[in-house]
Design goal:
single chain; alpha/beta; Rossmann fold; 7-stranded parallel beta sheet; 8 helices; 45% helix; binds NADP nicotinamide-adenine-dinucleotide phosphate
């Protein structure tokens, strides 16, 4: 059975990706940290799309939980091959650098960057054995451009972009592609407090994007036919930055 693991699948962009991949016939592993109610909603949307899946909660910022929970799942489910890994779980905790405290730096780096390493390394072994895989990292415009008030988040996302390009070169010959998607402003809980009216004037298409528009890009890169696209960063930002 072909599986897709989506970290941070309980809400926002991750949820839309879960539903899109279910629609394409993948068994979806919906990861999240603590919001079981929302994760259950994602799973029911997966089922409504005619798909199957299960919840797999663990904290992507905690390497022992990743090993314990995801590692055990992989060991116990040899018939279910994770062909697609979407590293989507992320947080932001903005502050100007002068006022940023250690905890803000550490949490954002652990959740957005270290998670890439610990989750991907576990999943990569079986992809290498199968000589097939699609790894898609959800980064951000901040990681390309740098945004004031987000030194932590910009550093983490830029780090994942570098890792995407490096890993793509390591595993290209084994049938595994590694790409990143850099959303601009997307309507989710993460952008809830932002002044959309003001910000959308800066965006060439004059609106925030939808999670489904990011999911569409993820499904494109996740397809078997996207085999010759690797090491790339695809912006989904309404033309905000290029
Ligand atoms: P969101 O609506 O805030 O959802 C975040 C998701 O990540 C939730 O499912 C949450 O799980 C999960 N999560 C957070 N910390 C986690 C952890 N430590 N372990 C496991 N899961 C965790 O965010 P979003 O807007 O969909 O963002 C998704 C990704 O896109 C993030 O990487 C974000 O940086 C990136 N992005 C978003 C935008 C945007 O405009 N929205 C723009 C650029 C990039 P719980 O429900 O359990 O909390």
């Amino acid at each position: 059975m072909k599986c897709a693991l989506v970290t941070g699948g309980s809400r926002g962009i991750g949820r839309a990706i879960c539903v899109k991949l279910a629609d394409q016939g993948y068994y979806v592993l919906v990861n999240y940290k603590s919001n079981t109610e929302e994760a259950e909603k994602t799973l029911s949307l997966v089922k409504q799309a005619g798909g199957y899946g299960e919840l797999l909660p663990f904290d992507v910022a905690d390497k022992s939980q990743i090993q314990e929970i995801l590692g055990k799942w992989i060991e116990g489910n040899e018939e279910k091959q994770i062909d697609i890994l979407i590293n989507n779980a992320g947080i932001r905790d903005d502050s100007l650098m002068a006022w940023m405290v250690d905890e803000q730096w550490d949490n954002v780096l652990k959740t957005n960057l270290d998670s890439f390493f610990h989750v991907t390394r576990l999943v990569l072994n079986s992809m290498l054995a199968q000589k097939y895989g699609r790894i898609i990292n959800i980064v951000s415009l901040s990681g390309l451009k740098g945004l004031a008030g987000q030194t932590n988040y910009s550093a983490a996302k830029a780090g994942v972009i570098g890792a995407t390009k490096a890993l793509a070169q390591e595993v290209g010959r084994q049938g595994i592609t590694v790409n990143a998607i850099a959303p601009g402003f997307i309507k989710t809980d993460m952008t809830e407090g932002l002044d959309e009216k003001e910000l959308k004037t800066l965006i060439p298409v004059k609106r925030f994007g939808t999670p489904e528009e990011v999911a569409h890009a993820a499904a494109f890169l996740a397809a078997p036919e996207a085999a010759y696209i690797t090491g790339q960063v695809l912006s989904v930002n309404g033309g905000l930055y290029s």
